[in-house]
TrEMBL record:
Keywords: Lipid metabolism, Oxidoreductase, Steroid metabolism. Belongs to the short-chain dehydrogenases/reductases (SDR) family. One of its GO terms (molecular function) is quinone binding. The keyword NAD does not apply. Its EC number is 1.1.1.391. This is 3beta-hydroxycholanate 3-dehydrogenase (NAD(+)).
């Protein structure tokens, strides 16, 4: 049920982190992939790795906040592959600050990347999924879509708001496009080491000790562990699941 042979997956924010890990999982399951992000050099390096594994991997430079860039990127993907079966809307940013300190620019950056980006990429992918009567869309939200934290290191009100909006958008899309055999679900990663956390949260032994103590599984997430639920939502294993949200946080949000 997790087989993706012959499928084409588009991954935004594919240059690192969850996007890169998901692209590897897609290829391992048999899919070909289009890798979208702003940093083309990193995309090309990942594409070479995936080609060596036997996949057709297409790197495409794309700024998900710019409609012209998104339109051109999706056109390039369709020209190359002829179809899009899976869309992982993963591109995202986390801007620190509460409403008392966050600038309008910081607020807009969170909303533009985390919400507008999903809207724009979906806008140009969904019509093709409707035409082929098949599609699997996975939107990356965050555990911080449903919980907040009073620790200064976690105060990111624009991030909270934008990731909560992702859930609303996911449910709206799921309700509208189910009749076309398109499922739309979301995942909410907790603490994983990434470019956003490597030089901040993961630099603090005190923070990691406290986090591990309160997390039921006793540790942050390991590279690749976030890809399993993404693969589930991207495959026919989830053929009767839509509009749902799965948190990937080792149980931290339940205690």
């Amino acid at each position: 049920m997790f087989e993706l042979t012959g499928k084409v997956a588009v991954v935004t924010g594919a240059s690192s982190g969850l996007g890169a890990d998901a692209a590897r999982a897609y290829v391992e399951a048999g899919a070909n992939v289009a890798l979208l992000a702003r940093r083309f050099e990193k995309l090309e390096a990942l594409a070479e790795e995936l080609r060596a594994a036997g996949a057709d991997a297409l790197p495409v430079q794309c700024d998900v906040t710019d409609e012209d860039s998104v339109k051109a990127a999706i056109e390039k993907v369709l020209e190359h592959f002829g179809r899009i079966d899976i869309l992982l809307n993963n591109a995202g940013v986390a801007v620190r600050g509460g409403v008392d300190t966050l600038t309008v620019e910081g607020w807009n950056k969170s909303m533009d990347t985390n919400v507008k980006g999903i809207f724009l990429v979906s806008k140009y992918v969904v019509p093709h999924m409707i035409a082929q009567k098949y599609g699997k869309i996975v939107n990356v939200a965050s555990v911080n879509a449903v919980i907040a934290d009073k620790q200064d290191v976690f105060i990111r009100h624009g991030y909270n708001a934008s990731k909560s909006a992702v859930l609303g958008l996911t449910r709206g899309m799921a309700a509208s496009y189910g009749k076309y055999n398109i499922t739309v679900n979301a995942v909410g990663p907790g603490l994983f080491e990434s470019e956003m956390t490597a030089n901040t949260l993961f630099k603090s032994e005190e923070f990691l000790k406290g986090y591990s103590y309160q997390c039921p599984l006793g540790r942050p997430g390991a590279r690749g562990e976030e890809a399993g639920p993404v693969l589930f939502f991207s495959s026919d294993a989830s053929s009767y699941v839509t509009g749902e949200f799965v948190i990937i946080d080792g149980g931290s949000s339940i205690v």
